[in-house]
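can u pls check wat happens w/ zinc ion
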Amino acid sequence: MIAAACSAPTCLRTLREHELDAGMYLCTPCVTRLHGWLASIPRLMVLLEASRGRETTGQPSVTGTRTAPLPGREDVLNLLGPAAPGSVLDVHGDQCGDPPLLDTLGGWVRLALDESDQPAPHAWTPQRLAHWLAARTAWISAQPWSGELHDEVHGMMRVIWGITAHQPRRRPITQPCPRCDTLALSRVDGEAYTSCSACDALFSAAELAIGAAASLARTAA
Ligand SMILES: [Zn+2]
Ligand SMILES: [Zn+2]
């Protein structure tokens, strides 16, 4: 069997046999993470909107300056700003700062629409586009460009987390892995699955509860 790497440039995993059989280019942990990021966007948009007018420097505004003050934080306004119509790539490199959310998400939605006959999103807003992509992560994982999408969305999330100061953290779970019995389980805030760093298994909350009951029964016996 030929080993194929997960197509996300930042991921070092090798695709498992069932993933290859399913035509996946993106490994299951990457698909799970991608879904979690996209699903968190509506909630983070509320925080982004709230930090729109927040001052970063804390410096009092000087009266009588010649340059008019910006109506809000430039990085946030830039991120929330409308995407340049029709353009996805910044060929001339003249765009300053990070690309607006609509640019990043919209570019991938456009590509997905070009390559399939799926219905278009109802509205062209970051929330709608993120929801549209989140609902299609399984289909996305079977596209050769899914790795690039994964890393680009991750880059976008890091910018959002930097502004909202909401960075999901990985927390240890004090329960032995139901599969390999190692104390190596952890879960990232907001993600649906708990992963084992020893055997790479992923567990839902229900599977973990069953695992805990089984290990309790073993110790009691
Ligand atoms: Zn991966
Ligand atoms: Zn394990």
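The radius of gyration is 21 Å.
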